[in-house]
Amino acid sequence: MLFKGFLSGLSSATRVCQLRSLATASNAAVPELAEKLKVTVIPGDGVGPELIYSVQEIIKATGIPLVFDEVFLSQVHFNRSATIDDVIRSMKANNHVALKGVIQEGFIDAGADEPGINMQLRKKLDLFANVVHIQTHEGIKTRHGKKLDFVIIREQTEGEYSSLEHELVPGVIECLKIMTKAKCERIAKFAFDYATKHNRRKVTAVHKANIMKLGDGLFLRTCEKMSRLYPKIEFENMIVDNTAMQLVSRPERFDVMVMPNLYGNIVDNLAAGLVGGAGIVPGQSVGSDFTVFEPGSRHAFSEGLGRNIANPTAMILCCANMLNHLHLEKYGIALRQAVEKVLRDGRKMSRLYPKIEFENMIVDNTAMQLVSRPERFDVMVMPNLYGNIVDNLAAGLVGGAGIVPGQSVGSDFTVFEPGSRHAFSEGLGRNIANPTAMILCCANMLNHLHLEKYGIALRQAVEKVLRDGRVKTRDLGGYATTREFSFAVINNFKLD
After folding, report:
1. Higher-confidence residue: 473 or 219?
2. Of 205, 218, 266, 275, which one has the fewest beta carbons inside 10 Å?
């Protein structure tokens, strides 16, 4: 059983006591309620029903006062799916709360002209804010080893996911991104209110206003205006591709992050990869009247169906958060502490990462895999915006924007330029910028011009300077100037 596997090492006679003894610092028993609370449960697709079942086993074994009203909602198995109206009726009757598994949607549907079932659910329930708490856990090894604790808040009822796309002429697709002032104001206020309520110090607005000047410009201006009403909360804004790079190089700098829909989807998964993967991170979708608790990284993990290998941590933590929301804090705290003890003890963890075929990977999962298993990739191809984000994310893995060369290739022309396109205006005239990427661009250009012996010699000179580690620019932890690095390359340049 999933529950048995998850709590391996605890005998059946001690599991309830294990949870109850962690309820308070004084080891007082968790009090029983005269009446159990009823909540809606949506099992979802893939391993969702198995994860929900693991939660139900824990509820039954520990006496937590919850009863589930199950509503099966699916786009894959639509012939036996309930309707969204059925979900709404159930939630209205059951404390306006639901525990939800991931509902899978197809990748390609040439006739799609309406939002998917997830977007329909969010719009009908007006679940405008998705909140994902990124937190490291003792017992879970991470690539960077840093203690992280930050929150990602995503507007999830508009943006690119409005499903307003059509084929103008054969081979030309137009996809509309909807941004409204009212919804930008609502998510910005939610983020600052959240930061205030939870004693957070900073809010970072993530955007692409340098390119999408109207849509993301509206979002950014709204966040800036809202920040003036919260003088005790520090505010900053950051372009989404730079955010990806900062997340893999300096994730501890973030506290509360707020962003539009698509960026939030990618950043959620990227950040999940920093702390252990999709199976670890809980989330919740918040509206004015309803709240849905669901995993922060929305992967159905269909290939794990029936194999009893899925990690239930995220779903169990969702249940703990739901208990807190229902003012059953003693149960919620006890359940979280039990999970943390199992993780800390390190007993029989299930697989944290799904096997996903490289040739076909959703961009948000790609971000998560890049920070957790980057060695799995070789050649990646993707559309424009995703490439911008992934370029910067990957640059952060190997040293930052100053390290990575790039090139733009056409049928007749080739331009060699840094892979991470940051102007670094604040370094202007200070002689502190890292020239590595530009020098490597030159080496690649020499190779392109069939001057390979010069290109190879220049690259080898750069690599020797980096390997020796005596001449480092500030972004690499040193004090060398731009010119000092360049002179070091000159001194190591040798033609065979």
Report:
1. 219
2. 218
